[in-house]
Amino acid sequence: MLRFRSLFLALLSLIVLLGVTLVPGTAAAQAKPKQKIQVLTVYSNSAYTQAEALSIALKRVVDRSRDWTLGKGDFSLEVLTAALGCEEVPDAACLKKIAKQVDSERFVWGQLEKQGTQVTGTIHFESPEGSKQTSVSYSENLTDASDEALLQVAQVAFLEITGAAPGKLKITAEHAQTVIVDDEAARQLTNGGIELDLPGGEHQLTFSAPGYASETRTVQVVAGQLVEVKLSLRQATGGGVEGSIGADTGRGLSTRQVIGIGTMGVGAVLLAGSVYSALQVSGVNNDQDFDRYRASVAQGEDVCERAKAGRRYPSAPDPSGIADQCSKASTFQTLQWVFAGAGVVAGGVGAYLFFGAEDEPASARRKPRIDTRVGSGGGYMSLSLPF
Fold this sequence. Notes:
Elements: H1 5-22, E1 35-39, H2 48-64, E2 68-70, H3 77-83, H4 92-101, E3 107-115, E4 118-127, E5 130-139, H5 148-161, E6 167-174, E7 178-181, E8 187-188, E9 193-198, E10 201-209, E11 212-221, E12 226-232, E13 253-254, H6 255-285, H7 288-296, H8 303-308, H9 319-355, E14 365-366, E15 369-375, E16 378-384
Parallel strand pairs: 1-2, 1-3, 6-12
Antiparallel strand pairs: 3-4, 4-5, 6-9, 7-8, 7-10, 10-11, 13-14, 15-16
Helix pairs in contact: 1-6, 1-9, 2-5, 6-9
């Protein structure tokens, strides 16, 4: 029979793991350093909205990348060429000036134009190794930078110009309705199938559908090649057994150990609060309106200070809403670290109380009881800890 302590060792391991993930600079210090890159706002005199949305989508592709990090500041190709006295299509000499101005020897720029119901253009990548470019063409209806279809266009273009051409993944999954790729947003399958352009390398796919057991597969995508995945989800089975189990855990728990368990639980809740706060800060940073306002603020100026001062810019959102977003991000950023610190401390104190109670007399100990019930309609497990 398994001893009750194993359950709490597993819980403590989870708390320590969560605490490690919230402390920056541990595992990341061993990772390959990312290269800095700048994305200039794409220029267009006939498809301004589409160009702005594509620019934001390209920046989000960089944020998701494992190899690149976005440089500080927001720059527009149109503004830079005018300020530097360059032509609309910058030549080699002008590109060198732009690299110095944006403080990055690697940057992306491009131009779009509307042709009927389509927008077409060219996206360029400048680096010390030379220049690369690729063509884009998509529907004029893609004006939302968070639209997965536009993000796919931006991702394919970025991978092509940075030398990491995507591979194509063809999925045929009977009964599946959605697939999650590498913990990103779920994508809908049409008649059990979908084709995706993904970077070369290993990817994790999770398939699901109501009434069927979810299934996870790992697939190796090869750059520039087609890879196929075929599977069929199994129907979820019902039924089960019903009963009650009284678990004798051997030596009972002391009051000190029970308090330690509760304190570790509080630590886990606080760490969860830290993760939630971090997600709120990330949500503000990736907000479309915040991106638009940030793109209008001059280099070196603080976005939040400009918004709180009520500074308005053409085609940018109302500054009062941006100021509210800044306040929200500031509050949750503080809570993130408060919860993280308190959670790690609570988890450590709880562990000390639990594992430091070996020498207490047996009369101070109580035996827990575990009751379980499983049936066709579901199940439950209850844990009683008398003290």
